[in-house]
Amino acid sequence: MAFYTKAAFGPDCSLGYLARRIHQIGQSLIEPVFAAEGMSGTQWSALMSMLAGRSSTCADLARDLSHDKGATTRLVDAMEQQGWVTRSRAIDDRRVLNLELTPDGEAAAIRCRDRIITYWNVLLTDWDRDEIEKLIELMQKLRTTLDDALTEGLRP
């Protein structure tokens, strides 16, 4: 049986709306952390993707951030100018651009991460550990469902 119905559908129960609003509000709250480092939230996401080992090439980074190649190139240009990343051509395939965090890039990403951890812990003070863990579990499950739909080309 389907969960959503025409009669009982609106912003307060729409997964898309709720995810977007949570992201918008969260970004606006933590933006000062990035501004203090002279970076944007997108740049921090890119640095963290690299730090976590999710992205070692421009193509990996584009996929992880859901950016097109042009936007990713501009993003990497800006991070390279800041001295946070270096890029080099792969020896075996000159089309591939390898990315590497510089010590300054790693340090900036870690400083932001640590401030964000502290801030999230303040925001979640009234939440039980089980609630947080369950929310993360459900969000991971939804991400997997959406990733699978994307991979399978399941579109409306």
UniProtKB/TrEMBL annotation:
A Pfam family of this chain: MarR
SUPFAM superfamilies, from UniProt? Winged helix' DNA-binding domain (SSF46785)
Give the InterPro entries listed for this entry: HTH_MarR-typ, MarR/SlyA-like, WH-like_DNA-bd_sf, WH_DNA-bd_sf
* Domain called HTH marR-type: residue spans: 15-144
Know the name of this protein?
Answer: Winged helix-turn-helix transcriptional regulator
Q: Which organism is it from?
A: Sphingomonas albertensis
